[in-house]
Amino acid sequence: MTLHEFQSLIRRMYHEKDEARGVEGTFMWLSEEIGELAGALRNHVHGDGRGEQTKEELALEFADVLAWLATIANVVDVDLEAAVARKYGTGCPGCGQRACVCPDAEKP
User: Fold this and answer.
1) Buried-exposed string 13-43: b where 16+ CB fall within 10 A, e elsewhere
2) Domain residue limits at 15
3) Domain count of the chain?
4) 105 within 8 A of 42, measured Cβ to Cβ
5) Chain center to CA of 54
6) With b meaning 16 or more CB within 10 Å and e meaning fewer, what string describes 79-89?
7) What are the residues whose beta carbons fall under 8 Å from the beta carbon of 95, sequence distance 6 or more?
8) How far from the centroid of its chain's Cα atoms is residue 36's Cα?
């Protein structure tokens, strides 16, 4: 599935609800999912006594974050695939290289 196909799928499944919720409400859900991903990553790396997160559990958290990002992009009518291609399609936006050579202290 391409990024464009994924964003279209999310639009077909949820757009009516997403439009009604708006950007602010949708951003709150994205923030919650990012928090869940952070917790899963922390548990995966360090453990918390409950057992480490499996790769599959981590993958599902990443999928949730991507879905909510696609949702916000749909609400504000941004084509994620086009935006990614425009920003990263020719290399690092900082140094222009395919394998980034930017100093570690700089973004990206």
Assistant:
1) ebeeebeebeeeebbebbeebeeebeebeeb
2) 3-77
3) 1
4) no
5) 19
6) ebeeeeeeeee
7) 101, 102
8) 13
Whole-angstrom Cα distance, residue 95 to residue 102?
6
DSSP label at residue 52: P
Q: What is the structure's pLDDT at 44?
A: 81
Tell me the CATH number at 15. 1.10.287
- Pair 107, 88: CB distance under 8 Å: no
Please indicate, yes or no, if residue 52 is contained in any of the structural domains.
yes
Tokens representing 27 are 């951003």
Whole-number Å distance between alpha carbons of 100 and 97: 5
pLDDT tens digits along 15-58: 999 999 999 999 999 999 999 999 999 888 776 545 556 888 89
